Amino acid sequence: MRNSLGRTAIVLALLGGAGAVAAAADRPLYLTFAQEHVIYRGLTKEKGESIPAGFQPSIGAAIPPSLSSHQLPGSVTDRIPAAKRYEYLKLSDDKVLLIDPEGRQVVDIIDPQT
Questions:
Q1: In the predicted model, what is the mean pLDDT of residues 67-81?
Q2: pTM confidence score
Q3: 37 shares its domain with 87
């Protein structure tokens, strides 16, 4: 364990500040079913946007410029601090996309049907 932590510290030192931030941004978001439920319930009153032709929502997909992502409400991020750095986009089919605002990429899809 100590060797692993030491190697991590060396790698971060070699990467420098910007590299460490980029590495952190590449980490996937892991949410439990309960956390996804909290997010979805927090957005139930939000109106869904139409899905543009040709856009297939999937993890890692860039959202088209015609779609706007929004900050998650405080009632959600207070309960799930890990989601604070992400934005959301609710679609007309009631799916909720969690978006990395820097790259405008989908990091999670919350589907109420599953």
A1: 95
A2: 0.74
A3: yes
